Protein: Tetratricopeptide repeat protein
Organism: Rhizobium leguminosarum
Amino acid sequence: MAVNTFNPSRALRLQRTAFLPALALAAMFGLAGCETTNTSDAVIRIDKAQGSEENIASLTAVINANPRDPEGYNVRGSAYGRAGQFRPALNDFNTALQINPRFFQAYANRALVYRNMGQQAQAIGDYNAALQINPSYDVAYIGRGNVYRMAGQDDQAFNDFDKAIQLGTTDGRAYHNRGLIYQKRNQQDKAIDDFSKAISLAPNSPEPYNGRGISYIALNDDDNAFADFNHAIELNGNIAESWANQALVYERRGDKAKAARSYRHAIGLDPKYQPARDGLARVGVAPAG
């Protein structure tokens, strides 16, 4: 049975993150060439319940019933990883690969854990191994592309995202992340197209709305940008970047009071989020602390 890396439709699997959660505002007031950057790449969203004693015991029982089935170790490793228990996760993926050295999904799963541990070279190695076994595995292209993008290797990242898209991926992260590179290259129309495709594939994820909004800002289309930022907040009101993005539009409109309110809200969610602190200073309010 094939295993989809971190597929949310599979119970007890590590959730396959649709988009990277930290979407930072890089556009300063009045700047024509805006871009969205990721200040952190929290590639695994921690869910402690996945590592609960009851859940792990259930998965262990499956392994004990069939200890030579690599699938069981892959699933339990995914649960450990989802819970932030990276060492046990690595152990399980290692065991799965010892049993089946061609288990390309386990390579990609282990790569994601390495990414979250900051071991990027090991992650690249595992993505390469997965792709050597299955050159059509879109998950590995997207994962490797993100490692390259976070390292500033935009050309390599673009090629990986583009390859995943050519393979017909339905994972919106490929479009979202390619859109970020188009945005960085100031190819805003192409970025908007990619963010829009990402939205069509994952309409409940706020990140592509934030990304598209920043590209609209770069094109001085503040009304569409404002609509996207507001919708991002409706989808998830706990992301500081969305509030700072909304504040930027208020600021550009000259409504300093509303801008200050939204910047304060962003800082309340993330006191260290520098774009919000800078924005608050620009509208004439000193951030606390």
User: Anything to note?
Assistant: The two ends are 54 Å apart (CA to CA). The longest strand covers residues 24-25.
